[in-house]
Amino acid sequence: MSERPTYDALLLVSFGGPERHEDVIPFLENVLRGRKVPPGRMLEVAEHYYHFDGKTPLNEQNRALIAALERELARRGPRLRVYWGNRNWHPLLPDTIGRMEADGVARALAFVTSAFSSYSGCRQYRENIEQALGQSRVQVDKLRVFYNHPGFIEAMVDRCREALQDRPEARLIFTGHSIPLSFANTSQYREQLQEACRLVAGQLGRPEWRLVYQSRSGSPMQPWLGPDIGDYLKEMGAGSDVVIAPIGFLSDHMEVVYDLDTEARRICEGLGIRMKRAATVGVHPKFVSMIRDLILERTDGAPRLALGDHGPSPDDCPVDCCPCS
After folding, report:
1. Which positions ≥6 away from 116 have C-beta within 8 Å?
2. From 26, 33, 60, 82, which residue has the greatest number of CB atoms within 10 Å?
3. Average pLDDT in the 98-124 region?
4. 13 and 141, same domain (yes or no)
5. What domain range is 87 assigned to?
6. 318 domain-assigned
7. How many CA atoms are closer than 13 Å to the CA of 190, on its beta-carbon side?
8. 314 within some domain
């Protein structure tokens, strides 16, 4: 049996976002580089950020998650230095990799803030890490996808239960980020989302639930996953009572606080629908503990936990996994 690698750091890899009004357009240009997105769509999304004075809540939530992880690892081990690098805005991955190398990090595990497999949710992050490494001597191994890990599912169950507590008859609606059908057809994204929703609803004792999608972008001529949350709410009609659970998101970033808390709520108020939004897993203790579990799988050969019928995802994705096509 081969000896397990020794790791001395954990790298949290996230999407990134602006913290000032003047950073919004440069940030969105980074996000949309190489994509065929109408200019008007970028300006429309920019207005979402301006609605919050150009500051995404994602960064504060990542800082809170890092602080929670540092406490968890200091208390229970393994003792790893925690770093943070983003795909699209500061701290950018290449800068963080450079700091890790200067600090003497030899090998790190990467936790990507995405629970599901798709090009944009997994493969692109792996590509970003490889590009950021360049000629660096640091080695980085990505932790596996965790959509069906008990820590993620049970944290989401708790969030949904809190939202349903004062409205037990409400309709339960899960949301995931819409992606192009071309991405969905070459990945397990839809299937993993459906399985995560089924597992959460099962623990809640809710046989009736619905998965819909939100936050689509890109050319209107390109088919994306649906139905859209707004369209679905309009079909429901007046007098409904709903709890919306953004299971496809780990923290309350812009797609949650604007597309759900602002736009979806406006639709609900106009239609007389009573809406409550469940919190994302954020820094739920079970979720933080799950990240430690994923680390221990790689460092100590700990059990690879998974609920449902799909089993744990592999550590190393196949070469042809989740292509951009």
Report:
1. 122, 145, 147, 176, 188, 189, 192, 193, 196, 248
2. 82
3. 96
4. yes
5. 9-146+284-299
6. no
7. 13
8. no
Q: What is the pLDDT of residue 41?
A: 81
Residue 173's closest CA among 213, 219, 117? 213
At residue 325, the pLDDT reads 66
Global pTM reads 0.95
Percentage helix, strand, coil for the chain under 3-state DSSP, each rounded to 5? 45, 15, 40
Strands of the sheet containing 139-142, edge to edge, are 81-86, 9-14, 107-112, 139-142
Neighbour-count burial of 42, counting CB atoms closer than 10 A to its CB (0-12 exposed, 13-18 middle, 19+ buried): middle
pLDDT in tens, 248-286: 999 998 999 999 999 999 999 999 999 999 999 999 999
Check whether residue 99 and residue 219 sit in a common domain.
no
Domain harbouring 25, CATH code: 3.40.50.1400
* Residue 108 and residue 122 in one domain: yes
223's tokens: 């088919």
At residue 2, the pLDDT reads: 61
Say what angle helices 150-164 and 285-299 make with each other, to 10 degrees.
170
Task: Establish if 294 belongs to a structural domain.
Answer: yes
Count how many domains the chain has: 2
Q: Say if residue 93's pLDDT is above 60.
A: yes
